[in-house]
Sequence to fold (191 residues):
Amino acid sequence: LDVFEMTDRSDDDVTELSAGMLQRLNIIRCILHNPEVLLFDEPLNCLDTAGRSLFSRCVKEDAQRGKSIVISSHNLTQMENICTSVCFMKQGEIVFRNSLDDMLRENAGKSMVKIVLADSGQLQDAIRVLRPLDVVRTLSSRNNEILVNLKDNEGAFEDMQNIFLQHNIATLTFARENITLEDIFNDYFEV
Fold:
């Protein structure tokens, strides 16, 4: 209870706990008997920022003590800060497995560009000029944002900026971003 900052709630009825506090309690129940192998399914659901930090610290400490920890999660951004190895599954089968460091190193040459349009009405125009470019591996969009995964870094960023200028597509942001575990997943599964 101390580790997850719930000592002051030890006498509370579980029906009085919030969803986040119930999730903390479930995690405590998993680690209480000090198992050598921990298996978590979406452990960060309902946790607030403090709860996620406590979980991350606890898992990292247990891993340093030699425990095996398996976490199933759809939140790859949060897992990137916790895990040392990654496994992608499709229809119950492991289709990819690698250490997180190796995975990020192998994909370091790839580049992501985040574009925020000044006018969301220009989204389709922007996609129309980006899609045929040879350097575009994948692109996704939402509202006035476009995320472009580039095949090649050399000059592609500047070429894309010039194309937007030529087509009078105004942007608020046109920035390089580090590739993430979620980007790698989307690229692997061509999402």
User: Anything to note?
Assistant: The helical segments are 19-31, 49-64, 76-80, 100-106, 123-130, 156-166, 181-188.
